[in-house]
Amino acid sequence: MKNYEKKSLITTISLFFIPLFILASIVLYMYHSDKVKDIEQNILYQMKDYTFDFKGDTFSLDIVEDNKEKQLFKIYHCKEGLCAYFQIPSTGPYLLKVIYDKKKYEKVYYDFLVDIFKFSVVIFFFLLFISVGFALYSLRPMKEALHLLEDFLKDLIHDLNTPATSILLNSKLLKRRGDFEETERIELSAKTISSLYKNLELITPKQISKTEEVSLSKLVDEKIEILQKLYPKIKFNKNMQNVFIKSNKNAMERIIDNLLTNACKYNKKNGEVNISASEQKLIIEDSGIGIKNVKKVFQRYYKENETGLGIGMSIVKQLCDILDINISITSVIDKGTKIELTFK
């Protein structure tokens, strides 16, 4: 199950389960209150029966003065436990106080709480089961639609590759006949389409091997050569050693391609892109417009303006996770963005 499917499932379960749980809690609370009254009422009738023959040791007795504040045949919570007052068949101003020991009452109440807790656990899991079943049933049509969309996207990606490759090859053949500016533009456009194709191809990356010796400097130089033609007013400052890492060339190419393209695309006029690298770190810093919400930048389809598809940084994060690369972003609005890749 994919992350967005898990998130949708959890959200749907919560939306269905929480109201049911609250309703069940209210019902259980009302049941608890009524049951406690029934227990006390039952004890009260036992007290009344006890006043007829005084048999057994369930209750204890006391004689108290009638101060007119105590109601007859009513349960009171007193320090001894449960108490009730009954009329003594005499002319004196006294009442008979029947006491139900506090420890006995606590045991009865505890046994009741255990029963209601067991019942509550059963209700909880029953509601959870119903909620999960409802969520799976309600999300099924959406899941099928998303799978159809993904299949369509895969077919689209496959169909996009053929014309893009054909345009790129033919533009190179045209360049052999004559170095025209128009031919170079066609080639650059074809490379842009090819880059988009490679991004779409890695929307759902699988396991990628880290068995290749990859030159970071070479990958950066190749990308700068293309971007310099697309963004002639951007100045590239490179301070890199000839760094080689054990990784995957295609994946690293996608990461660097997306990061450098964004550094140019969202830069200011006559802006700069600074690139530095060492054995453990690659840093790309631009003087662009900055990122408003850095925390959301890796979310798929997240965009802060109308340009782009919003998938580039999502792909970068997925590839970094697979290749065990730590990526961090710091950004200041209207000053620029700094991205650090740390290789483990």
Textual characterization of the structure:
This protein folds into 2 domains: 3-137, no CATH class; 208-343, Histidine kinase-like ATPase, C-terminal domain (Heat Shock Protein 90), CATH 3.30.565.10. The chain is built from 6 helices and 11 strands. The protein has helices spanning 3-53, 102-177, 181-201, 216-230, 249-265, 312-322, and strands at residues 59-65, 76-78, 81-87, 94-101, 212-215, 235-240, 244-247, 272-277, 281-286, 325-332, 336-343. Helix 5 (249-265) runs antiparallel to helix 6 (312-322). The longest helix is centred in the middle third of the chain and has 76 residues, at 102-177. The radius of gyration is 38 Å and the shape is rod-shaped. It starts with a helix and ends with a strand.
Helical proportion? 55-70%
CATH class of the largest domain: Alpha Beta
The fraction of residues assigned to DSSP E strands is: 15-25%
How many domains? The number is 2
Cα gyration radius (Å): 38 Å
Here the CATH topology of the largest domain equals: Heat Shock Protein 90
Distance between the termini: 28 Å
CATH H level of the largest domain: which superfamily? Histidine kinase-like ATPase, C-terminal domain
How would you sum up the major sheet?
5 strands, mixed
Q: What structural class do helix, strand and pairing data support?
A: alpha+beta
Q: Helical stretch count?
A: 6
Low-pLDDT stretches are: none
- Mean pLDDT, to the nearest integer, reads 84
Order of helices and strands, N to C? HEEEEHHEHEEHEEHEE
Query: Based on DSSP secondary structure assignment, what is the total number of beta strands?
Result: 11
